[in-house]
Description:
Blueprint: H1 29-32, E1 43-45, H2 52-57, E2 62-66, H3 69-80, H4 82-89, H5 96-103, H6 110-123, H7 152-162, E3 166-169, H8 172-175, E4 184-187, H9 211-226, E5 230-236, H10 239-242, E6 250-257, E7 269-276, H11 285-288, E8 294-298, H12 300-310
Parallel strand pairs: 1-2, 1-4, 2-3, 4-5
Antiparallel strand pairs: 5-7, 6-7, 6-8
Helix pairs in contact: 3-6, 3-7, 4-6, 4-7
Amino acid sequence: MYPNRNETPDLNGICPPPIRWAGGKRLLAHRLLQFTPKQFGRYYEPMVGSGALFFALCPKNGVLGDINKDLINFYRVLRNQPRHLYREAHCNNPDKTTYYNIRSQQPSSALEKAVRFLFLIRLSWNGLYRVNKKGQFNVPYGGRTPAQLISLEKILRASKVLKGVVLKWGDIEKTVSGVQPGDFVFFDPPYPKGASIGNGFARYNEMGFSLDDHRRLALLASRLADQGVHVMITEAARKEILKHFSREFHITLVRKPSLIAAESRYRRDACEAILTSYSPEASQNSATGYCPDEVGHYSHKEAASCHATSL
C-alpha cells in the first residue's frame, strides 16, 4: 500500500516536521497523504520548507531541495549531527534579548548556522522565515518563550527519516534534474494563501517568488507529467495562478486554516488547490475515502469560479 517508505504512515500519529514554516503543510499533511499515488519510485520535493508531507511519508529514497540555503544546511546538520544540534541549540536562553543578538550574528560553521536558523525560526513572529533583498533575516521577535526549542526525541526521529535522502540547495529544476518516469514529485510553492499577489510573506529568500515563477513551475510540472512522472502541486486557489496549469491536471479544492496574522482571532480559513497529474481515484483516496473538509473536485474553469466565492 505504501511503497518506498520507511514505515506505514499512521494518519493519527504521522512523523511531525521538526520546524514550523509559514505556508507549510503540517495541518494538511493527513489530507495530502490521501492524494499521493499508490505506487511510485523516488520521492522529490524541490521546495521542501518544513517537509510536512515528506516526514509523513517517510520515503526510503528521496531528494529534497530548496532555494533557501540556510534551510538545506539545517536539514544536513539535523541528519548528520542531531545530538550536537540539540546540545548547542539549548545553550542559549529563548528570550527577546538573545533573539536579537543571535539574529545579528553571521556564524561561519555549518553547525552554528543550523543552531542560529533553528533559534530564529522557533522564536520569530508566527514562525516566519523572511529576508530582505540583501538576504538578511529581518523577522521580529514573536514574544513566545518555550521551555525548549525542540525535543531530543523530535530531532532524533527527524534525523532517522532523513538518512539516505539527498539534500540539494538550488532552483526547482536542479532538484528534479534526475527524475525518472514513475517517480513522484511534490511541489509546494511559497505563496501567502488567501492574500494578494506581491505580499511580502512570499519572500523566503532574497529573490522572492513571483507570479512569473508560478508560470515557470506550471510549465515544469506539465513537462514532468508528459514524461510519466507523478506530479502533485499545492497552490493558492486563485484563477491568475491555476489558469497556467495544463488542463490535464485534476484539481481538488480544500479548506485550510491560514496561520499568518498579527492575532489568532484574525486568522481565517483559506481555499487551496491540490493539483495532480493523475486521477484522484488512482491515489490513496480509493482506499481511505475523501477528506471531510474537501470543497470538491473541479475543472479549471470551475476552480477559478470557486475562488471568487470561497476566499
